[in-house]
């Protein structure tokens, strides 16, 4: 029974997008609403788990019983995840973390200039990869947002980031991915096992994902 297994476990969930600042009025972000991650948090709490929810900026109500940690940038999310990693039993990385950020952050608003503008970007830290490298007792669950060759890329992330499980969604499919109340996911485990789920609400997806996690604990 999922609840019996998850009860009192410390589950760290990341959700939402990150924001990477350009200047005091502008930033780069992505389409994540936080719905998938918050659904996981709500369900894990209902199952009796101790939940830390590390969230980028979203318009959702924070789950009452979660330890709630708001962040903005990929760097801040990295720091907050690392602070709780030792005490975590499970980490679920639902967040859509920026892979790049502006190399220069301006203190003052950038003024319009004639012609085109290029902004040089540098890589952010890959939080999940670092968690995989530092993994001890924790169960590590990633998400993969893909638009093509979903299985190939998802399995590659599962291996290269040293994960126990990855939840892949094709974000170009109708009813799947960013912003919607539903999702269509396939779960890949380290053992090679693959479970393709039909179109479900994010709440139902959360329940199934937690059930799979419980089976690994
Ligand atoms: O928030 P919603 O609107 O409900 O949408 C849900 C979702 C589409 C955001 C979610 O289902 C999802 O797919 N989340 C992962 C988004 C993503 O960034 O995927 P990715 O394939 O780029 O990254 C793979 C994994 O590495 C993810 O677990 C991500 O959290 C992690 N990552 C990526 C980059 C980085 N610098 N650090 C990371 O930890």
Write the layout of secondary structure elements.
Blueprint: H1 2-6, E1 10-15, E2 20-23, E3 26-28, H2 35-46, E4 50-55, E5 67-70, H3 74-85, E6 90-93, E7 100-102, E8 121-123, H4 127-133, E9 139-146, H5 150-160, E10 165-170, E11 182-183, E12 185-189, E13 194-196, E14 200-201, H6 202-216
Parallel strand pairs: 1-4, 1-6, 4-5, 6-9, 9-10
Antiparallel strand pairs: 2-3, 7-8, 10-12, 11-14, 12-13
Helix pairs in contact: 2-6
Catalytic activity: (R)-4'-phosphopantothenate + L-cysteine + CTP = N-[(R)-4-phosphopantothenoyl]-L-cysteine + CMP + diphosphate + H(+); N-[(R)-4-phosphopantothenoyl]-L-cysteine + H(+) = (R)-4'-phosphopantetheine + CO2
Protein name: Coenzyme A biosynthesis bifunctional protein CoaBC
Cofactor: Mg(2+); FMN
């Amino acid at each position: 029974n999922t609840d019996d297994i998850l009860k009192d476990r410390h589950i760290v969930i990341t959700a939402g997008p990150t924001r990477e600042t350009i200047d005091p009025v502008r930033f780069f972000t992505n389409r994540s609403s936080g719905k998938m991650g918050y659904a996981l948090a709500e369900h894990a709490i209902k199952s009796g788990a101790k939940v830390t929810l590390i969230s980028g900026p979203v318009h959702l109500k924070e789950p009452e019983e979660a330890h709630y940690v708001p962040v903005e940038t990929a760097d801040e999310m990295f720091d907050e995840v690392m602070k709780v990693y030792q005490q975590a039993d499970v980490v679920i990385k639902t967040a859509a973390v920026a892979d790049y950020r502006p190399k220069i952050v301006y203190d003052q608003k950038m003024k319009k200039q004639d012609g085109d503008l290029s902004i040089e970007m540098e890589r952010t830290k890959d939080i999940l990869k670092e968690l995989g490298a530092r993994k001890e007792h924790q169960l590590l669950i990633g998400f993969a947002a893909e638009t093509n060759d979903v299985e190939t890329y998802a399995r590659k992330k599962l291996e290269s980031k040293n994960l126990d499980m990855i939840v892949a969604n094709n974000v170009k499919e109708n009813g799947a991915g960013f912003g919607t109340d539903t999702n269509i996911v396939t779960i890949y485990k380290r053992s090679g096992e693959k479970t393709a789920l039909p179109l479900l609400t994010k709440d139902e997806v959360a329940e199934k994902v937690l059930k799979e996690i419980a089976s690994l604990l």
